[in-house]
Design a protein that fits this description.
The protein is of the alpha+beta class. The chain has helices spanning about 1-20, 25, and strands at about 30-35, 45-50, 55-60, 65, 70-75, 80-85, 90-95, 105-110, 120-129. The radius of gyration is 19 Å and the shape is globular.
Length: about 130
């Protein structure tokens, strides 16, 4: 009986780790998110639903611009990976939930329009709406 209890306790960390990657942690990125920086000139809102389906809005005037449909969106290990092709640039994004409860969105932009603009990476944080 003691050996069985010891074996069960030894497996507990692996069970908890598996649940963190394949359970609530993945669901933690789902929802509607607003940029924590209200004065951002970049991405203002993100919506992630099961599938995953991803929508992103950028700062525009008079209302924010919907980025449209991504080329690809995948859910892996509690993170959402998205690829956008806007013609002039290809963007790769990774969204993950931080321990603080915020959503972190890392965007890598590669310009494809021969404008000689430098590629860049930005990191932004979002609060759940």
């Amino acid at each position: 009986m003691r050996l069985l209890a010891a074996a069960a306790l030894a497996a507990l960390p692996q069970l908890v780790l598996a649940q963190a990657w394949h359970g609530p942690a993945e669901q933690g990125v789902f929802g509607q998110w607003r940029n924590a920086d209200a004065a951002t000139r970049s991405i203002t809102r993100v919506e992630i639903t099961e599938g995953p389906r991803v929508r992103v809005w950028g700062k525009c005037h008079p209302q924010d611009c919907d980025w449209g449909k991504p080329e690809r969106a995948e859910l892996k290990r509690g993170m959402v990976h998205v690829r956008w092709n806007h013609g002039f640039a290809v963007r790769q994004q990774t969204a993950r939930r931080l321990e603080s409860g915020l959503l972190e969105l890392v965007t890598q932009t590669h310009f494809t329009d021969r404008s000689q603009r430098r590629d860049y990476t930005s990191t932004e944080q979002f609060t759940r709406q």
